[in-house]
Amino acid sequence: MAAVTTPDAVTAVVTTTPLVEIPTLLDLLPGAGAVSWVRRGEGLVGWGEAARLEVTGPRALAEAAEWWATLSAGLDVDDRAEVPGSGPVVFASIAFDPAVGTSVFVVPQVVVGRRDGAAWVTTTGDVDPADVLATAPAPIPSPVGRLRYADGALDPASWCTTVATAVARIDAGELAKVVLARDLLVTADAPLDARALLARLAARFPDCWTFAVDGLLGATPELLLRRTGRELSSRVLAGTAPRGAGADDERLAADLLASAKDRAEHALAVESLVRALEPYCTTLTAPEEPGLLTLANVRHLATDVTGVQRRTGARGRAGLLELVGAVHPTAAVCGTPTGAAAALIGELEGMDRGRYAGPVGWIDARGDGEFGLALRCAELSDRDPASARLFAGCGIVAGSDPAAELAETQAKFAAVQAALES
């Protein structure tokens, strides 16, 4: 099932113009309708809506790929930058389960990009590139005032009981791992402003990808899949430890690297990604030992996987959305085996994930693009602009302790809470 909005503007010229001055991307965003994919100041931001697709069903990603291929092929493109992310671009936020959840694809009227010391602006339809940077965004509103938090689908005690049930099912041999998430509701005294949240997240988590699509925004540390030409890359994260102070911080880092429980969880996530990508690749490389990704609030075991896509054959011609559909959901956000883990999530979690933990990112008309996983995120309410829903999850394996897993979700909530409370 698909709902499509394609205004006449999208049949007009798409113009990409290199910029002499390098802008600060997040500073350009307007007060509403912003899309973002930014890491260490580079990436893409956009606003306005030239075309939109909302799609649900077992062929959701295939329908989206067909829609984008048809749409982009019919555009009159003048691309003077010719780099990944220039020319026509669609931003996407895909449901955790695309067969039952709604995935959103947005082609902005304006996209500003920055990569390797170069910058550009792309306009679609009746927008003058010269006017884009000359118009200052509206000022960010005053502080949102007091924040009030409420439990989502499960209160902490009930969620711990759910974790204990999952551990028992793992011990019984039904599966090896399941990722369980919980949600937290927040209401402010004044409307929440996406620009302020994105700016704070980017400042505190520069090594994460700061994303926003259709009201879902956050700072994800996990790169599901990047494609540049035939080159593919991914950053797998699984296994988490909190940060400490001084010598305690170093001890926590060493304990994470040495943890048999966390390394087993991490290995399952790497194996699931590699197994899904292998049929599409001529070469695929994954280091034997994980490293550490250190963020402001937590550390993760991390493995960077790289590969080269096949030139020929049915799978050699696969587009980025097909590849995303092949690797998602990984063990990092679902579990192992995938079917058993997904069924247990539906049985125990008690909430609709929507687009949380689903792929989020962008694709250009060449087929290049980047997708992360929508983690460390908040979904702004479209009914109450002063309200949002926060998400956090963790991998449950044999030996998982419910109280420790609850503490891990609280550490992950803190990423967005700090941005809200700043």
TrEMBL record:
Name this protein carries in UniProt: isochorismate synthase
Enzyme Commission (EC) number: 5.4.4.2
Lineage: superkingdom: Bacteria
Gene Ontology molecular function: isochorismate synthase activity
Keywords per UniProt: Isomerase
A Pfam entry, by short name: Chorismate_bind
Enzyme type, top EC level: isomerase
Assigned protein family: Belongs to the isochorismate synthase family.
NCBIfam families documented for this protein: isochor_syn (TIGR00543)
SUPFAM superfamilies from the UniProt entry: ADC synthase
Chain ranges of the Chorismate-utilising enzyme C-terminal domain: 157-412
Catalyzed reactions: chorismate = isochorismate
